[in-house]
Structure formats: C-alpha cells, structure tokens
Amino acid sequence: MIVAEQKPLAEIKASVAQYDKLLILGCGTCVKTCFAGGEDEVAVLASALRLAFKKDGKKIEIEELTVERQCEDEFIQEAAAAIARNNAVLSLACGAGVQDIASRFAEAPVIPGVNTTFIGILEKPGLFVEECSGCGDCKLATYGGVCPVTRCAKKLFNGPCGGSQNGKCEVDPETDCAWQLIIDRLKALGQMDNIRHYIEPNDWRPSGAGGPRKLSREDLVV
Amino acid sequence: MNEDKKGNLQRVLENGGFAVTAECGPPRGANAEVIIEKGKLLKGCVDAVNVTDNQTAIVRMSSMAACVHLEKMGLEPILQMVTRDRNRIALQSDIMGAWSLGIKNMLCLSGDHQAFGSQPDALNVFDIDSMHLLRMVKTMRDEGKDMSGFELNGAPQMFIGAAANPFADPFEFRVIRLAKKIEAGAQYIQTQCIYNLPRFKEWLKMAHEEGLTEKAYILGGVTPLKSARMAKYMAANVAGMDIPDEVIRRMEGVPREKAAAEGIKICLETIAELRNAKGVSGVHIMAIENEGKVGEIVESAGLIPRPEAA
Q1: ipTM of this predicted complex?
Q2: Sheet holding A110-112, edge to edge
Q3: Chain centroid to CA B136: how far?
Q4: Is A163's Cβ below 8 Å from some Cβ in B?
C-alpha cells in the first residue's frame, strides 16, 4: 500500500486558517489502511480542528466526507458538490489524490493533510516499513525477493558494503541489512549464483529519471 | 602530460616490493597549505598517498584538487572517488580530468553514507555502486571507451584500486565480493583497519585459496590508536570496525601518556605480521589527522628508504 502519515495538527491548522468553510476529504483505500486519512481520521481531525479554532475564537465550518479513492474520477465526482459548497479542500489522500482533486477542480484550493511516505507493508501493528520504490524494472527474482534499490541505503547492486554488521545496516542499527537478507534468502533457495558475478549498472529511465512516467494500456481504452 | 604511464605504486608492486601507502584528508576549507603540510610529512615515507573524497560525508576540499597539490610536490596521489555524490556522467568526466592532470591511481568506493556526515539533509546519488565504478575505469582504460561505448580521445590509464572489509558481515560473502571487485577491474586492494589479525588471516587464506592474491595486490590497512578512549570509540561507533577486547585492554593497561606509543607498537606488530603473511603486498597506513606519525611508523618498521621513483 501507499503509506502516509498525517501532518502535525499545528501545521494543518496554519494551512487552513484563512478559510471559513472547509471540506476535509478522506480517501478510503491506502491511507485508510494505514490509519492516516480514512473516515475515522477525517472525523478525529475535524473535531480537533473545530476545537482548536474555537479556542482562538475563529468561526469555521468543517464538512467531512470520505470517498473510496481520490485517484479515480468515478469516485472523485462523488465529492463534487461538497467541494463546490466549501472554500477549500483539506485532502487526506496521498500526493496523487491531492493532485487529482486539484486538476479537476480549478477553483478549489487543495491542501494536503498527510505526508505521503512510501510504498510499504504493515510489518506488525504500529509499524509500516518501506519495501518498494516503484523503480519500474523489478529485479526481485535476482535478489531472492528482497529489494536492494529500496532496502539498501546505498542502493548497492553487487553485495553488502563494509558497514553490514550482525545483520544490521550501518545507517540505522534498527534496520536489517538488505544484503544480509538477500544472501540468507538466496542461500536457502540454493540461488547464490544469482549474485556471485558482476551485475550491470541499472538503467534508471523506468524509475522516473526520464521524467514523469506514464503507463499506456491500449487494451483498456474504451 | 602523463606520458610515463605507470605510476610509482604500480611499479613498486609489480617489482615485488612491499608497498607503503598512507591516507591524507583534505582540509575543511580552501587553504591549500593544509594539504601541502601533510604532504611534507609524508614525502619520502610512502609510495603513494590516498586522498579521501569527502570522507565520513563531511564536506572538504575536493580530492582531485588536493591530489594535484600533492603531485606538484612530487608525491604520487591516489584519487579516492565515491559514488555517493556523483552520477556516472560526473564520474567519467572527473576520471578523464584527473588523468589529464597527472593522477595515475584511483581507489573506487561507494562512500560513507551522508547520514554520518555534517550535512545529513543532502540527497545522495548512488547511480552506480563501487563495483560499477571499477568496471567503468577499467573499460575507459582498456577499451578507450566511455560507458556509452563512445571512443575517447585519450584513454585514462589508471591503476585501479578497491577497498575490502574482512571484518564486516556476512563474512562468507566477503571473499566473493573481493573476487567480484577483482573481476570488475581492481588491481590492488586496501583493507579496513586490521586489529583482529586472526579474522584477517582467515579472510586472506580464503582469498588465497580462491587465487585472488595472485590476481590483485593486497595492502593491509592499519591505524595507530592514540588512546584507549579512541579504541573504544572506534569499536562502538565506526561501522565495520572490529577492535577485539584484548586490544582495548592492552591500550587501557598502559599509563595515559604512554598510550600513543603503545598504539604505534601495536601498529608495528601488525605490519610485521603483514610482511610475513603470504599474499600481502603492502601496508596502507590510515593515521587520521595524525599524518606526522607515518614517518615514524614506516621508519621503525624498517621500510625506509622507499624505492626511488623512476
């Protein structure tokens, strides 16, 4: 999933203070799953903002709404009326959702309420970890299902750096060394030959180095 | 420029000598005097001088500029180059520029992560890794081509080095990685500081069994400890550093004013072991901000005079 984290209340409050009619727009997919921007978070944030502005003596009307996804027009249109009757939208979607709303509603200021952090997994309750960089050319078959592009702090393609110790990364002793994981997995799979020889430099074009990426699927065009 | 293609370090190693190199960090500023003073301390004691590339990710005078200052003084520089800060375009450009300025040796590294440095808010590059950098320099030299296959007008004829850390994990991959570096282009290897001799010898034995000590010159790394505090700090805080308890206890066992001398004694004992070890071709002395001690160490080790630069 795309993992996001809600911005601090003080930052959100400052960024919406100039409006008196605000729509807090949640997103019911990724950010709901990581407890950053689903309907529950919309409700809690709305209450917190109402209270904070009341303390300041500022009048603000806050409307709450959550759509299934802010990255698909079909769902975005469900919010059109609410967007029209407010002065601004505080979107709790990822950066893609925020931009999709902005591009479809030219008149509406759209303010991000979360920081989009990474593509990751829920490792255990309360801990999300990054696993994928969306680099566009998946090499997980070579590396035993552990991604060196995302999980090695130096993006090393040919083996661990000199800082791998006791299975941990030199940059953060709480983080597993990706290369220790790769080697352990490949050994268990009997596939150490995958990494025994020189692996060529990466072509970064599919990763976004060639500019914003597009995926065109002729078979889906209607 | 650079008509006599083989440098001093390469000649010493190819003649079967026990090579001596030392590390030299450029200043945090534009004052060339700092590097010139360090150069004076090292002149006559070493075959070549490693000039670090923003080591520990702290911003310093560029390695290439500092190399040129040393080269003008008659010292042979080794240009350290890390892939942390420059993409393949900048790296290739700098390699050509370095050769044009008279630099004949390189040490190819990934580099310390910027999280350890003075500007952890920086974006790193890591377009390629140290293995790719080795291959890049080799291809430029042997095929006279850049990474795109374009034929270069003038191929940099670098003597190519890499680093190895026998003390990092996973241990069994360390020799595979060494083999990969040699396959990629490394002609000489400088190791991480050796305090744990048994582990170093185990790594060396494995490298020897794989025939790797015949394919590349191994230079063992040493750093004289200045105090017990330094030993404990390095053991706890420097990534990939292995300082056994008995070394720390030994440093603690002498009065504070004699600790530095004890550190040099340990260093000399290690050098003596390296000279006797099959498959070791030299020593690399990393006397961090302590370059003044290099002469004393090399002399006490009986390694002076150095072979004349031709």
Answers
A1: 0.94
A2: A61-67, A21-27, A88-91, A110-112
A3: 19
A4: yes
